[in-house]
Amino acid sequence: MTSPRHSLKFPKTVRVRSRLDFAAVYERGVRISDGCLSLIALPNDRATSRLGLAVSKRCGNAVQRNRLKRRLREVFRQSRAELPAGLDLVVQPRADTPIKLDVLRQSLVSLTRRAVKKLAGRSREPQTAVATNGDSTVGDES
RNA sequence: GAAGUGAGCCAAGCGGUCGCGGCGGAUUGGCUGAGUCGCCCGGCAUGUCCGGCGACGCGGCGAUUUGCCGAGGAAAGUCCGGGCUUCAAAGGACAGGGUGGUGGGUAACUCCCACCGGUCGCGAGAUCAGGGAAAGUGCCACAGAAAAUAAACCGCCGCAUCGAAGUUGCGCCCGCGAGUUUGCUCGCGCGAAGGCUACGGUGCGGUAAGGGUGAAACGGUGCGGUAAGAGCGCACCAGCAGGCCGGGUGACCGGUCUGGCUCGGCAAACCCCACCCGAAGCAAGGCCAAGCAGAGAGCAAGUCGAGUCGCGCGAGCUUCGGUUCGCAACGUUCGAUGCGGCGCGGUUCGUGCCGGACGACUCUCGGGUCGGCUGCUUGAGGCGGCGAGCAAUCGCCGUCCCAGAGGAAUGACCGCUCACGACAAAACCCGGCUUACCGGCUCACUUCGGGG
RNA sequence: GUGUCUUUGACCGAGCGGCAAUGGUGCCAGCCUUCCAAGCUGGUCAGGUGGGUUCGACUCCCACAAGACACU
Questions:
Q1: From the alpha carbon of A2, which nucleotide's C1' atom is closest?
Q2: pLDDT at res. A129
Q3: Does a structural domain hold residue A10?
Q4: What share of chain A is helix, strand, coil (3-state, %, to 5)?
Q5: Which helix (H) or strand (E) element contains residue A33?
Q6: Residue A84 near residue A116, CB atoms below 8 Å
Q7: Which bases in strand B are touched by protein, i.e. have an atom under 7 Å from a CB?
Q8: Beta bridge pairs of residue A51
Q9: How many structural domains does chain A have?
């Protein structure tokens, strides 16, 4: 197996794509929100985390929504080293979400940390190793 | 120079790094598919079998690397039109819907171009659902006499009759005076006998000139005419209908004659006329894989024609075994009709498919799947040139390939420049329309002012 | 993506080619009550936007906007 998790690439395998996956995250995931984003997380038994986006029509017209989605993908791509592995993350922006890249990155990283804590507190044995800087513990279990 | 009108074009640019989608190339010790050859270890239904292992080249997926391409003028709204696909095909009539000056363009249009007519503007130009109201039905509030065959009312006029006043004034018949153009005019007086008129009412008749209104009032002005009036007559003007002549493919325009003299508006009210329109939509449709559970209903009775086999009847021949011909229509085959089911968006005509017996049939209800491939981008295509046409557009030649995703590809960072960047992103594809929009550019034209 | 429909005061609804646009809930004021509630009286506030047809449009036609529903 290769070790793609530190690369800055963004292939389709690190994205939540099927309807069933989305439904599972909505049904069993934990939801964490702050002022600009709402994040739903669920462990996925994989070596990598995956990103899914749900941008409603309240976030503007098609151009604004596309721009927001692209910036969220860029944030995820750049911060994969800082994020824990093995999670499905569905991100829902709020209606008044700013599109500044730094703000989105900060929000995404901190929300993911809080989601990991909440998952750890919810289940007796967390299926996901809590690894905030990513390159220490995650890859061994697969 | 200022103000404006119309048409068309562009949609910040350049470079670098990382990342994303598609297509192509190279590499690959990862995964996988089918094939060929080999080994004979395994199975038993001993084979051109099944299975296993190895080698070879080929393909797919993945990984690495590399090259090219990668949202719009509106991609939008979904308001029209077409292609394409499925419904067997897309037929008639009616219903329903749409369109509405003429000619052209187009695959087609509610689009475009040119022209005609109306309205607006000094003008360049703009704008108009712009057929029919003397086929019919309906509506026109309030106001007004009346809102649509014109008639009733007020008014005006004539005739008849009644009443009141009963005398003054007016007018006439009479006398005097003044003036005078000798026609007559003015002033005064008289009588009240008579008559007429003036007043009011009623009745009959004539009339449409007038009647504050209203969005709109049954032609306008003048002269004649009359008891009063009237297109009743005449002249001019407006309008309508018809005929003729000329121009134009045509809408229509110009001229002329005649007519009765005149007929309101609304059809984006019903309607009439002409023309057009089958339905659904790429989540259409096709293929593969996976997966589930079935249940109910129908299959009845014929008719006609043809074929010929078996049977039956008749006739001929006969070696008495049969054989040939004809009839009949019992069985059978085919066709038609009828019947039943379903369908052709609604109704109907017409028509298509299936059904002759328990099925590999038809119909109804129910159940399962929500994966992959395809459709999927070469097209009424872009650019350039030449030609036809006033133009929309068309023809020919050359040249180019220019997104094809699928929880859905264009983002981030850095540097430079400027006018500091609007509205906004494909989802089967085109042609239009409409709406949004920072600004910039080009061409043609109009009006006004100044200069030569 | 495709198809269908709606829009009338702060809210729910009716209506029609000619009004000062009707009703209820609400809100405001007054009366009643010792006070409140209920009741009574009066008032307030309107046809999504822009064009067109018509003498006249909330109504008819067109365009746009906002919203809702259905299919899948």
A1: B63
A2: 39
A3: no
A4: 45, 15, 40
A5: strand A30-33
A6: yes
A7: 18-21, 63-64, 71, 75, 370-371, 406-413, 424-426
A8: A15, A89
A9: 1
CB atoms inside a 10 Å sphere around CB A140: 7
Tokens at residue A92, please? 């829902």
* CATH, residue A54: 3.30.230.10
The whole-number Å distance from A17's CA to B104's C1' is 56
**pTM of the entire structure?**
0.73
**Percent of chain A with pLDDT strictly greater than 90:** 1
Q: Smallest CA–C1' separation from A51: which nucleotide? A: B407
Whether A55 is in a domain gets the answer: yes
- Give the domain range for residue A62: 15-123
A93 inside domain: yes
Q: What is the pLDDT of residues A24-50, one digit of tens each?
A: 888 788 888 887 888 889 888 777 888
**Model-level ipTM above the cut of 0.95:** no
DSSP conformation letters of A72-111: HHHHHHHTTTTSPSSEEEEEEE-TT----HHHHHHHHHHH
